[in-house]
Amino acid sequence: xxxxxxxxxxxxxxxxxxxxxxxxxxxxxxxxxxxxxxxxxxxxxxxxxxxxxxxxxxxxxxxxxxxxxxxxxxxxxxxxxxxxxxxxxxxxxxxxxxxxxxxxxxxxxxxxxxxxxxxxxxxxxxxxxxxxxxxxxxxxxxxxxxxxxxxxxxxxxxxxxxxxxxxxxxxxxxxxxxxxxxxxxxxxxx
Amino acid sequence: xxxxxxxxxxxxxxxxxxxxxxxxxxxxxxxxxxxxxxxxxxxxxxxxxxxxxxxxxxxxxxxxxxxxxxxxxxxxxxxxxxxxxxxxxxxxxxxxxxxxxxxxxxxxxxxxxxxxxxxxxxxxxxxxxxxxxxxxxxxxxxxxxxxxxxxxxxxxxxxxxxxxxxxxxxxxxxxxxxxxxxxxxxxxxxxxxxxxx
Lengths: 190, 197
Prior knowledge:
The complex is a heterodimer. Chain A is mainly α. Chain A has nine helices and no strands. In chain A, helix 3 crosses helix 4 (about 70-95) and helix 3 packs across helix 7 (about 115-125). The termini of chain A are close together. The mean pLDDT of chain A is about 85. By secondary structure, chain B is an all-alpha fold. Chain B has one domain (about 5-190). Chain B has helices at about 5-10, 25-30, 35-60, 65-90, 90-95, 110-120, 125-155, 175-195, and strands at about 155, 160. In chain B, strands 1-2 form a two-stranded antiparallel ribbon. In chain B, a hairpin with a 2-residue loop joins strand 1 and strand 2 (about 160). In chain B, helix 3 packs parallel to helix 6 (about 110-120), helix 3 (about 35-60) packs antiparallel against helix 7 and helix 4 (about 65-90) packs across helix 5 (about 90-95). The mean pLDDT of chain B is about 90. The interface between A and B is large, with 41 and 39 residues.
């Protein structure tokens, strides 16, 4: 039951993009087509799941016993950057097909604040290992959901006749605002 | 480029929020009021100026291939300093800004300036550049915060307008309002700068 609450809360109620404003850069940058946003979502899910395990172990078996929890930010960002590199190298060897599919999105993930954000949040919320993984994966699903929905809207938006000053980012933000309003309907669910 | 130009280009021409579209997460996430927006802007400016100075001082010591990880370590160290400092002296603001303070590490403005400016220029010029971009960012965040605070809770910098209280639109303080307010501010910015350009 606890896990179910975490899943629903992080996909819908506290959607990472639309309610917590993490990972806005890829949200506005890559979400022009439904396929590319699915690719980005898959890459983020993959990295977030692995990084949540690594970060959990790092926090509770290295930083806390050594009494250097204040170095959290430095340690986490280094681990995530190294991890993204490593995932890229391993994928290239083990599964070239998946590497091809995720290709360009992998290096972009290091600068995705959603990954570091989730790492910090799961420590803040004091989740155990399994809860951390569930939290990370369902947050990533929420991210993918927001990205895909937004991409679908933006594909239609390209045909709209808009004032010049409104074109591009302003109208994208406005659409995101309306989407966020829709997601507010989920608040109070858990 | 003259020193004055280095400093002022961050205000409008290379304004990080409105024309470069960098650092969107803290821009949307922390601007529930003018004071919150301003604190986030100042915190970012602090890291930006110092990281620009440090990186331009050590630019010749860093091998080209590992420069990005090296920059990230410098930035993360400065952010940790800022975190400890804020937790000690302004705990209330530290609480409100929450996760966005450690997330300054992945703010693309800072890494962007390190890569584009500080790694090629003198420490003094880099400090000016950091200050200019920082002021531009702080200004945008304060403006967005003020707009949201005024529309959402009919107050400005914590000062309540009693007569307007019944007209506050709560939606502007909540998540969707951030997107909508920024969208319209951007339209105004585009309109205003279209004539200059």
